[in-house]
Amino acid sequence: MKRIILLLLVLICFRNSNAEELSAEQQQLAWKFIQENMLAKDFLPNTFKQDIIINLKGEITSEDSIVVKDLIKIFQGAIPHLKIELSDKPGNLTLGLNNGKNYRVRTNFSANHIISSQEMHFPSNLIQSQRKKFIYYHLFRGLIFNNKPVQELTGMNGCVFAENDFKSITFSPFDLFILEKLYAPDFHEQFKNQFIRQFSYRMYLVQMYHRELNFIFFLLGVIIPAILLTRLVIKGSFKAHNWSWKEFNKQGLYLITIGSICLICFSLSDLKFSLSDLLIAILSAFISINVIYFLEMLILKNRNLGGAKILIIYFTTLLGMLFTIRPNVSSGNLGELNQRTMNDYFLLINFLIVPIARSLYIFLNDRYKSIINQKDVELAQMGELHKQAELQSLRAKINPHFLYNALNSIASLATTDGHKTEQMALSLSDFFKYSINREQKQLNTLSEELNAIRTYLEIEKVRFGERLNFEIECPTELLEVPIPQLLIQPLVENAIKHGLSQITDNGLIRISVSKTEGKLKIRVYDNGPAFPDGPLTGFGIQNTQERITLLYGAKATINWQNGTEKYIEICLPL
Questions:
Q1: CATH hierarchy code of domain 380-573
Q2: Model pTM greater than 0.70?
């Protein structure tokens, strides 16, 4: 009979615990209470994810057990997808009862690794109805882990989740409604539908999806800086600064911009962005860059340290990163990138990734430049060899051309004047001693070149006799100036062939050497007929022009002039 009376009392107490009895306004009030008080960081409730095993400890009466079993039936109706039972063995929800002693209500959320414990005092003078309230209060609250301070909300008085003392509860219908909603498998959808049309709660919808937003912004914080950094490297923005403070900080500004984008994305991923934190981070990064600059300038400037350079760069970068200030991008109650995680990221990036990445980039860049320089040297050597071969080819073309003309002259004199033939043959031998150039020199002194020209003209004078006269003028201080071998001879040969050969007497070849405005000017005058429109197209002149172009580039020129004083001029840089 006593058991039946107790059962009836429990059923009467819970008659109002039906969620359907709540009006629309009351349901909205309950949802607001859930939103403000009952949700964890991810805006989902901390509830059991597996079967619930309730264990009672201490001095348990039969009436206490009956109350607990009837509560289990009510819980099972609200949470049909989990099995709830009372067991003598240790479970994941333990309620300790003992008159006059402190016991703990321990809730073990093993599914999501949360353990909650709180001290409770069970007064010895409680009557049975108060004991029932005590059990009701702690078992209801034991099913939900919530360590947030409850905010007062008008209209929720007597709710087991809204009261901080079991004596104040009234077995409110809010209790079961809240329990049902928190354990509903589709809680996320119900919560979204409840607040989707309320502008003031749209931020909470964003917070509900913060995991997805975290992932998106985290990816953006990694991908966008990576793309920008790769583009800058490919574009060649990070080049040798030659210890220019302006250039060093300009390149550092690129990195600060990329880091700021990364920091903003990480901040947005945690639904918090602080302009002051960003400005502090930028200032500290600027200080770090200048610390690195002055350290490396002091140690590395004007020193060739070989492989030790990379090691020094690593440690100077590591030391410079000590001046960066850790950004506070976590709100402390939103997102999965909590402060400890961000600290880990900060330490990893600042003291491992950045120094290693910078050292590796400089090493690879130096290695690349070394390879390029080596290739440039090889190409320069090949170009020099090619140029030497071209010069040799051009010079070789001069000798056969002159030899052909000289031998023809000797042949024509052989039957008429043996003395002249002998004189011409000896002079030709002397000229070829100079022109053969066994040492393969490209340059000879102006003195040697003029002596060779004098010998050449003496050969031609034997041929032309009194029809040919010549003069050579050169300041003494210019005699040791180096010029290409056989540079003047083609011009003299051209003057004889196209100038003096066209007149019958009083032919004059005059060679004048002078220095003007830092350049050496060599002029070959003749008093023969005027130059045609294109005197520079002849073999000898064209050969000379190609040779000086190979040796001096655009710095050397060939000019000509008709008129009272007809001449052709070579202008060489000194």
A1: 3.30.565.10
A2: no
